[in-house]
Structure formats: C-alpha cells, structure tokens
Amino acid sequence: MKELSQIQNIERSVHKKFRKTIWRPFIAGVKRYQLINPGDKIAVCISGGKDSMLLAKLMQQLHRHSQFEFELKFIVMDPGYNEINRQKVISNAALLEIPIEIFNSNIFDVVTATDRSPCYLCARMRRGFLYAHAKKTGCNKIALGHHFSDVVETTLMGMLFGAQIQTMMPKLKSKNFPGMELIRPMYCVPEEQILAWKNYNELTFIQCACPLSENCNILDASGGASKRQETKALLKQLKRDNKDVENNIFKSIHMVNLETVIGYKKDGVETNFLDMY
User: Fold this and answer.
1) What residue ranges in 53-196 does DSSP mark as E strands?
2) What is the DSSP string of 111-125?
3) What is the bridge-based pairing of β-strands 100-104 and 41-46?
4) Mean pLDDT of 21-48
5) 237 exposed, middle or buried (CB, 10 Å; 0-12, 13-18, 19+)?
6) In this predicted model, which residue has the larger pLDDT, 209 or 150?
7) Tell me, what DSSP letter sits at residue 51?
C-alpha cells in the first residue's frame, strides 16, 4: 500500500478523525446560516494562525466537493510582520497546498504610533484593508476564521465587561463597502477541536505578531492576560461543573425571548419594556 504524503494525511484527518468534531460542524454552520451561494467569489482571509489556516483548508475542501459553483481566493494581508513570521505563513501555506496571495499594509506602523485603543484601531484597519483588497479582486465576500469559542466568549465578555448582550454574527453586510459581506464559516467549530487538529498533524502556526505585546511569541504559546483570556479561564472553570455551559450560551443567542428583556436596541433605536407595558 502506497504511503500517504503529509498533505494527504492532513486532509484525510479532516474527513476521518475530525469528521464529527470539525468537518460536520463546519458544513452545518455553512448551511444553517446560508453563508455561501452559487456564484460567490470569496476571499478567504489568512492571518497565519491556526484558525485561519484551518479555515482555508476547509474552504478548499468544500470547494472541491461542492454541488454548486463558487470561487475562492486565499489572501494574506501583511500588516508589518517580521521576516520570521512572514516566512512561517508562506511555508505553512506551501505545506497545506493553499495558493496564497500576499499584499502589504502599514497597519503595525500606524497602531504603534497611537496611544489610544491600538487594538481597536488595528482590528478596524485590518477589516478595511481586507474588504478593499477583496473588492478590488472581484470578490463579494470575505471569510474570517472566527469559531464557536470566539462566539461564546464574545457574548459573555459583552455582558461581563460591556454591560450589553451582543454577540458575533455568522455573517454581516458591510456598511462601508456596498455589496460586500463578511462570513464566518467556522461559527460552529470549537477551538479545542482546532487545537486537536493542529497537534494531531504536528503543525505550528504564528500565534501573535503584534509589536505592542510582550507576551506573544513567534510560534504557538499562551497569550498574555486580557479580558478574553480571563473569559476563557472563567468558562474553563464553569465547565468543570457543567460541561454544557458553552453550548448553553451558544443556544441562548439563538433564542432570545424579548418578552423577558428589559430593553433592546434595533437600528440605533432603544426600546424599553415599559413602552409596550
């Protein structure tokens, strides 16, 4: 029997070992939230981390087996990576046989020169650069690597630190780039399964390339203390007593009972239960 190559084993692992925990949840999310339509041209955005790299491989596999036609472009925005990180992205893309297109930006230079909310500014600028480049290449959607755990953590963080019930949507229409949409195809894939896939295939990806962070290493490592890290730790603690806590939070954002909500906001207009009492 012919021995499989590394990339063949990596692709096989998605459909065999991780079929129930990654491939099926991925397909379920794409179908449930109607993320991909016939004729779409999707820019799969790759940062070089485990999430976006797995997203690229999943989208590539879906494209091969899809029952309808759509196009993919795999784009990497270099915000100012050092040479080691940039080469790691390039070598991983080659290993996974993902045909990436790299374009440069000056985001790291801009955010390191500001004292006010550099992380917020970085995220906004990244999104803008990705939308602009994708639109220029004829794409109508960008796909990001946010996953199930990001959704749960963001929901909880909004309540604990932002005093609001707000989550991460599976798809969004761009306000600044008409005709463009953002989709999150790994919406139903837990981070622990992404880590399991990475470790099973003995892969290493860049974790954090931010020039402002002293707690991030070039390759995978635990991040520094942050509100998201605090939330991760809290969820881990809660799961010791209730293994379904993350699933319950995820389900709750799909079934909000407005009859028991004190107030809510829609299209910028606030509504209080007393208005309809």
Assistant:
1) 71-78, 100-104, 141-143, 171-173, 181-183
2) HTT-SS-HHHHHHHH
3) unpaired
4) 98
5) exposed
6) 150
7) H
Give the mean pLDDT of 234-245.
Answer: 96
- Those residues with Cβ within 8 angstroms of residue 218's Cβ, 6 or more apart along the chain or in another chain: 84, 85, 88, 206, 207, 209
Give φ, ψ of 31 to 5 degrees.
-75, -45
Amino acid, res. 77: M
Please tell me the pTM assigned to this model: 0.92
Tokens, residue 185: 């195809």
If one counts every other C-beta atom within 10 angstroms of the C-beta of residue 91, the result is: 11
**Residues forming a β-bridge with 192:** none
CA–CA dist 54, 27 (Å, integer)? 14
CA distances from 103 to 38, 90, 98, 100 (A): 27, 12, 16, 10
